[in-house]
Amino acid sequence: MTACGDSGLFAESPDAAAGGDAQRVADGATPEDAGLADDVPLPDAESTPEDAGLAEDARLPDAAPDASPVYPADRAHSPLGPVAAAALRTIAARAPAAATDVFAKVGDSITVSRSFLDCFDGGGVQLDAFGDLEPARAFFAGGDAAGTSPFSRVSEAATVGWSVGAALRGAPSPLEQELTALNPAMAVVMFGTNDLQSRAPNVYFSGMRALVDALAVRGVVPLMSTVPPRDDSAIADADVPLYNGIVRALAQSRRVPLMDLHRALMALPGHGMGPDNLHPSAAAEGACVLTPSGLQSGYNQRNLLTLQALDRAWRALNAEPAPEAEGPTRRGDGTAAAPFEVDALPFAELRDTRDATTRAVDRYDGCQSQADESGPEHIFRLTLDAPRTVRAVVVDGDGVDVDLHLMVDPGDPTTCLQRNDREIEADLGEGVWYLVVDTYVVDGGPPQAGEFALVVFEP
Questions:
Q1: Strand order in the sheet with 451-457
Q2: In angstroms, rounded to a whole number, what is the distance separating the alpha carbons of residues 394 and 68?
């Protein structure tokens, strides 16, 4: 399995550590072209952001309103209606002195590359059918990101080979250094390509949650992105839907914008990837050429999505009319009487068993389990119109222990079909099925309740 020069969860490749322009990757080049190692050891799956002194529970009390949003998987951008726009303004109000025309770039080699956004700062821009984005491009091109524009800024929080934990490590962390240097109103965030190496989605969940919450607490609006396919590795690519589901669940729960780069790339020839099948390609005429031919390349698609996301968030923060009507909300309350509805696959949801109001089942006899599951649970109803193979994964953080159960009747423990502390894969027939995320209790102690993400998709 290959990766972007990553040698550990919090590690950076030797060349990436040099800083400045040594971190940059030439247009169309890969880290291997720059002499970076590609065959690397797997990160320590036991390492977590908490090991680096990060807070585990950084929940924002005003980040999850009663009407939980749904970010559909069939569109390029998450809904940005009046309520969502107000949520962004709530975040921004924490930093009234932030530079509104400046954003930070946070990520790995796919963010470091000069093919990402740099060209919006000068010549070679062809917006073509997207001319309505010119005011946003000009606005941010005029921003002062420590002496340059945010489009061409070499970010302290984006380095070849990084997993999410690397941006958070240290005091001050690279993320904190970049925020201090720029005082940005927004941050474009994408990690995951290297994190897939560890095959430790709980570590990725904890790191992304800590990063997004750290930005929001500081008054910086995160603009999140799904990650590209891993066409270089079938093993890694099999987990891309899971990691992207974690990103979607986190963005939904925090009501911050999400752009679906993976969806855009999957529609392109060769998925818009370069020769290494790991990094996106850039059009020969330039990565900021947004013509139909230019948008056959991966970086051109990412640049379009990012400029659109910046434009949408900028208008929302300026209290202009929201770009669209309010989006859908999640049906149900997580009880047996009104389960959360899994209305489409893929499905992603972030919940907290500390907020659950039901404790219907303490032991799941149908699964021959004697584990004490007397803590609170959330119940999800999956309705299938045809037989499908379904993979359901639950991820949680340090100090939280929730387990996943596949059931016919969420109130009858004898109908439990499968149980696991991480994931279930099953061939399910047409009809109604239930996924119950229940809280484990250790030796009569307090329930190990807390935040979790549930991701359900067809493998």
A1: 347-352, 451-457, 388-396, 423-428
A2: 19
Cα 116 to Cα 133: distance, rounded to the nearest angstrom: 17
Query: What b/e readout covers 298-334, taking b as 16+ CB neighbours within 10 angstroms?
Result: bbbbbbbbbbbbbbbbbbbbeeeebbeeebeebebbb
Overall CATH class of domain 16-317: alpha beta
All residues at 6 or more sequence positions from 381 whose CB lies less than 8 Å from its CB, including other chains: 332, 339, 340, 341, 342, 432, 433, 434
Give the other-Cβ count within 10 Å of 392's Cβ.
Answer: 25
- Going residue by residue through the chain, which has 459 residues, state the pLDDT in tens, using 9 for 90 and above: 445 543 332 233 322 322 333 333 333 333 333 323 232 333 333 334 443 333 444 444 444 445 789 999 999 999 999 999 999 999 999 999 999 999 999 999 999 999 999 999 988 899 999 999 999 999 999 999 999 999 999 999 999 999 999 999 999 999 999 999 999 999 999 999 999 998 899 999 999 999 999 999 999 999 999 999 999 999 999 999 999 999 999 999 999 999 999 999 999 999 999 999 999 999 999 999 999 999 999 999 999 999 999 999 999 999 888 878 888 999 999 999 999 999 899 999 999 999 999 999 999 999 999 999 999 999 999 999 999 999 999 999 999 999 999 999 999 999 999 999 999 999 999 999 999 999 999 988 999 999 999 999 999
DSSP per residue, 147-159: SS-TTT---TTB-
Cβ contacts of 122 within 8 Å, gap of 6 or more: none
Closest CA to 184 of 210, 141, 222, 212: 222
CA dihedral 264, 269, 271, 276 (to 10 degrees): -150
**Residues 6 or more apart from 20 whose CB is under 8 A from it?**
154
CB distance 35 to 18 below 8 Å: no
Q: Does domain 340-457 fall into CATH 2.60.120.380?
A: yes
Domain ranges of the chain: 16-317, 340-457
Residues 6+ apart with CB under 8 A from 4: 31, 36, 108, 109, 110, 160, 161, 162, 193, 194, 278, 279
Strand pairing report for 388-396 and 451-457: antiparallel
- Residue found under tokens 């302290």: 156
CB atoms within 10 A of CB 355: 13
